Amino acid sequence: MTTDQLPVLFLSHGAPPLADDAEWTAQLAEWSGQIPRPECILMVSAHWESAPIAVSSTTGAPLVYDFWGFPSKYYDVRYDAPAAPELADDVSKLLASPGRSVLRDQQRGLDHGAYVPLVEMYPDADIPVLQLSMPTLEPTELYELGRKLAPLRDSGTLIVGSGFTTHNLSMMQQDSAAEPSPAMTEFDQWAAETMERGDLDALLDFGSTAPAAQLAHPRTEHWAPLYVALGAAASDGTHSHTAIDGFWHGLSKRSWQLDAA
């Protein structure tokens, strides 16, 4: 497989303590080893909503430790990946339109939705990384945004939507291995089956079609990056497969790889 055949990923990124989960970190490392090495990485994280649309620093900015109340070791993590100014130029060309430019936030480093999984997948931090904001949570608009980004794959860019297949912090379990609630398992099963059959209409209208949608996602920002990934993969007539499944503290960590059919 060559770089012009890079898949698109949607991954459940976890919180900083993901680094302490030997199973999950091993799954992420194995996954990255099974796909071609990208030339650069474009991350769309649940933790950056900004309109007008923006890209992260191309001159170097520290990581964004956008979490509170964790032990100090999680604030000592570094991920000094190279900046990606050429990728930022390409993103701007694809997304800019008359009266709508793509902003560059030179103060914005990678947030934990980007660097937490990348530390496990590409620990050498030697691949240029750029983060893109989500200007909306509306599924169809995000899907179309992903379609506009699809040409980046031809030059070896790995496009990654980083969210969480279920994300309701009030339903997290204290024990990482505890049984999830029925609501979380029902949504996870629906997501797996709907992605497997490629039912885009049901995915775009998940609030009406998925069981326990409002419990799985009281707010939809952690599900929204999936739509960017689906759009970026759509032009190939893609199919998806589950790369990681299971639950973590009661939340579904299901993650998908979208390949050319």
Report how far the terminal alpha carbons are from each other. 14 Å
Helix amount, in percent? 25-40%
Q: How do the strands of the widest beta sheet line up side by side? A: 5-2-6-1-10-7
Structural class: alpha/beta
Strand content: 15-25%
Shape: globular
Low-pLDDT residue spans: none
Strand and helix order: EHEEHEHEHEHHHHHEEEE
Radius of gyration: 17 Å
Sheet with most strands: 6 strands, mixed
Q: Number of DSSP strands?
A: 10
Report the average pLDDT across residues: 93
The tally of helices reads: 9
What does this structure look like?
This protein is of the alpha/beta class and 261 residues long. Helix content is 31%, strand content 18%. The chain has 9 helices and 10 strands. It has helices at residues 22-33, 85-95, 112-121, 139-149, 182-197, 200-204, 206-209, 213-216, 225-233; strands spanning 8-12, 40-49, 54-55, 103-104, 129-134, 157-163, 239-244, 247-248, 251-252, 255-259. The strands form 3 sheets. It has a 6-stranded mixed beta sheet with strand order 5-2-6-1-10-7, sandwiched between helices. It has a two-stranded parallel sheet with strand order 3-4. A hairpin with a 2-residue loop joins strand 8 and strand 9 (251-252). The protein is globular and about 45 Å long. The two termini are 14 Å apart. 43% of the residues are buried. The model has no long low-confidence stretch (mean pLDDT 93).
